[in-house]
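User: I want to check something. If I give you two sequences, will you return the structure for each one separately, not as a complex?

Assistant: Yes, each is folded on its own. Here is the first sequence with its structure:
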Amino acid sequence: MSTMGTIYDLGSGEGPRGGLPEKLRSSRDPVTGASAFTPLTGICIMVYYVLAMQCFSTVAVMRRETNGWKWPLFQVAYMTALAYGMTFIVFRVGTAMGIGGG
């Protein structure tokens, strides 16, 4: 939620009501005019966040423990590719099942 709040610049004093949920509901695709955030989009964001490397201090510790950049960089690349690949699969399956909404 904090990432989405940062993207939508909500740090400027908006209260808990309205705020992020209202911004997400009113956000539209500039090309099609369809809602930018569908249930499928929400699921894909959650899948990506679960699998992607979120803690870069872990990378720093791994760098220190292994005395090199080979394994830390492999870890970041692997987890990013895994997160992207799984999100792509979830999106395609969800679209084929008609969950895209919009």
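And separately, the second sequence with its own structure:
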Amino acid sequence: MTRTKLDQALLAELKILQDEGRAKPPERIITAYHPPENGLGPRYSLKGEERRFLRMNSNSYLSLSNHRQLIAAADSATHACGVGPGAVRFIDGTFSYHIALEERIARFVGKGAAKIFNSAYTSNCGLALTIGGKATHWVGDQLNHNSIIRGMRIAGVPRGNKGIYAHNDMDDLQKCLDAVGENIERVVVIFDGIFSMRGDYAPIDKILEITDRYSEKFVGGVVTVVDDSHGIGAYGATGRGTPEFCGRIPDIIIGTFGKAFGVNGGFIAGSSTVVEAVRQMADTYIYTNPLSVADCAAATTALDICDSAEGLQRLDNLRQRTRQFREGLDRLGFESIPGPHPVVPLLVRDTVKTHALVKRLFSAGILVVGLTFPVVPKGDETMRFQVNADHTEADIDIVLALLAQAK
């Protein structure tokens, strides 16, 4: 196919996306970060815009990406080892900073070992390639992240070896486990810790209570996996996320350094045997360069901060601001989904109103995400707000006042 023909075919597909309302808008370009001042949190400059913006759409829950200690750690590691590894990890691409981060994150989540990846997305794909097989049955939450679903597809999980339970429905989870075929040796129950579009969490304690009852039924047992990318660092008494909040730890934890910790990269944490199997069998680990030493040093520093007095203070302010915003929405009569997490959805339930409200907030210097059909079902149109640790009481009051005017 010539380039012209390829372009023509792709233009037709892009038009379909546009006509169906699924096309992404042009990407806004951030040009500058402005530190907190005068009782307000950080602001950002966008290309083509004179005003500065408050981000209520950032995953950087602990507001660490501009922390001076992270920047200094990244700078020091870069001067020591360079900007890139020069090879995959099997071919002398492993640096001391990779090992230090793996040991640090394993301790942080309470596991024997960990292996770092370029993202949580590639972590999910790598895990599926490692622990999947013809005699493995997968059971997942209806609202699991795309990376979990894609991981199972990449691993070639047969249609008959999958079960999907209604969102957070424990009775339906049990039905899925009861329906597993007799030829199955291992069952993997996998779920998000925090469901990123809703801000609610998986009841890990209840999930493990059910899976424990089935562990002897299968030769390879029942393996529980949580992708806690939005949870880790963002909530729980010490920032350990959904497992800490629920009081139970699954067999395997997948997470990211790119959200609460403000850096880049993902990880798989579990037993030393699981992690060695990942090292040997996960294509998304074996055949690609690792994180830079700068990313690793910054992420390790972020974990150290999270475990310090400063980290607990940031986590406490994050809780307070989240509570302030959630209570403000309730007071104004807006509909939301309850939960302890700083992802706070506002259910508008109308496409036109959602777009109008997002535009109105943008005009006032507030960045927020609107989710409409067909991304979400008709009637579930939502605005997703994300509270960060550097947000101040005044910041939240500004947003609530704008929402009050709009209402």
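Because they were folded independently, the notes below concern the second chain alone. The longest helix spans residues 309-332. The two ends are 53 Å apart (CA to CA).
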